Amino acid sequence: MTQSWKELAESKRDSYIEDAKKLLSIPSTPDPATAGPGKPFGKGIADALEHMLQQARGDGFKAYNVEGYAGCIEYGEGEESIGVLVHMDVVPPGEGWTTPPFAPDIRGGRLYARGAIDDKGPAMAAYYGLKLVKESGLPLSKKIRFIIGTDEENKSLCMKRFKELDTMPEIGFSPDADFPIVHAEKGQLNVDLVFNKKTAGQEQEEDQSFTLRSFGSGHARNIVPDLAEAVLLIRDEKQASRVDRQFKQFLKEKEAEGSFASSGTNEWTLSVKGRAAHGSEPYKGRNAATLLASFLSRFSFAGTAKAFLCFLAERFEEDYYGSALGLASKDEISGKLTVNLGMAYYNSEADVPGRGDIRITVRYPVTGVGQELQKRLADAAASYGFDLQEVEIDPPHHVPVDHPMIQTLQRVYQEQTGHTPRLLAIGGGTYAREMKSGIAFGPLFPGAKDTAHQVDESVGIDEMILSMAIYAQAMYELAK
């Protein structure tokens, strides 16, 4: 080549920005209401997938759709293949954005939109890396398979179906985490918690001073909820004034924002703001649900309301590592177990067990056993009248440090950045674990701000151009 990978990537800056903005403008959140044949997770995700495939066909690649669950773009020949796995689905945007989440905007050298860093922005950078390899004309001995998923933020049903219908490469990378190289991903225990039948009949007594009408917080288990609201029935005006005063004092002590306002006859709405973060790193956020529950649990609620609030306050508030649940553990490879309570809902008018609904994700060390943690969690939940439902265990993923692919990618990273590559372990799960020897490779550089799953999600454009060069060289070196 007469130009370096960096120079080639820089020449694509303007077209990358244009194409990334087009992709990011497609609202690709899950939408069961528009799901159907060829679009199992809804129209928006299906549109984003087909957009990528159409772009690839226009650029001269072989590209095909796998029943709407996934797509595949291929380049090169050979019996062996290298996988590059990305995803089109994004988490719900929530409220409070400076600019609309699906109207991409550039400010201060950063591209703002839902999916900018997770994962549509990096997916487009990796695709452009593949274009650079194709345009270079350099010979390859292996096929590069660029596989596009559609359900990464939920249950990864897309990859399960893809494996039923197609062949997954054994080695490769996913640009959906951090640089330099993520060689270990914690296991995941995802659980829904609902009241068990034994709590039936534990109704709130009508003569109680306080009745919890409803409580709501969160959009997804893998996001730290940044807003929580509760509706109370308070029959005595003096009691309402006392709650108002105590809530203001609570917010002051906690250095938090919130409100207390009348929403009807004897009805009052309390709200509190937190700070969103990725559910694999709950300590980087502030959980609005557990914060509000810690205040409300002080009052004389009864029955299921008391159990719901006390469970949140006593077992989850400011406990990111599962100590109060009896889950705390760690290892040298991947560090501490973490717990995120992503959704918490209560409705006093619903029948038990549907009255309370709590959804959590536990990310446990690579040496841990998900089934053992499940038993401990069940014991803790039972003491508050909750049962575990919809339990999902995704085992840890670990690629040995001496694997040849890791050595190749270490060299690529060092040549492109000038920095010594460290091996990382993360709590987040990526498509890397779908491959026997897959690793997560970027796009977040050391020290860069991580806004995944947050309001005003963004990515640095310079970082995406450098990522493009890294991905291009990585694909070439692995497939040559």
Task: Kindly summarize this structure in a few lines.
Keywords: Dipeptidase, Hydrolase, Metal-binding, Metalloprotease, Protease, Zinc. By secondary structure, the chain is of the alpha+beta class. The protein has helices spanning 5-10, 13-24, 43-58, 120-136, 157-165, 237-254, 288-296, 303-315, 370-382, 404-417, 461-479, and strands spanning 62-66, 70-75, 81-87, 105-107, 110-112, 143-149, 171-174, 177-178, 181-185, 187-195, 210-217, 227-234, 258-264, 267-273, 330-331, 335-336, 338-347, 356-364, 386-394, 397-398, 423-426, 437-440, 443-444, 458-460.
**Mean of pLDDT:** 94
CATH-assigned homologous superfamily of the largest domain? Zn peptidases
Helix content: 25-40%
Distance between the termini: 14 Å
Name the shape in a single word: elongated
CATH topology of the largest domain, which one? Aminopeptidase
Low-confidence stretches: none
The number of domains = 2
- CATH architecture label name of the largest domain: 3-Layer(aba) Sandwich
Radius of gyration: 24 Å
The CATH C-level class name of the largest domain: Alpha Beta
Number of strands: 24
By secondary-structure content and strand pairing, the structural class works out as alpha+beta
Strand order of the largest sheet: 13-14-12-11-17-18-10-19
Number of helices: 11
GO molecular function: acetylornithine deacetylase activity; dipeptidase activity; metallopeptidase activity; zinc ion binding
EC number: 3.4.13.-
Pfam families: M20_dimer, Peptidase_M20
Family: Belongs to the peptidase M20A family.
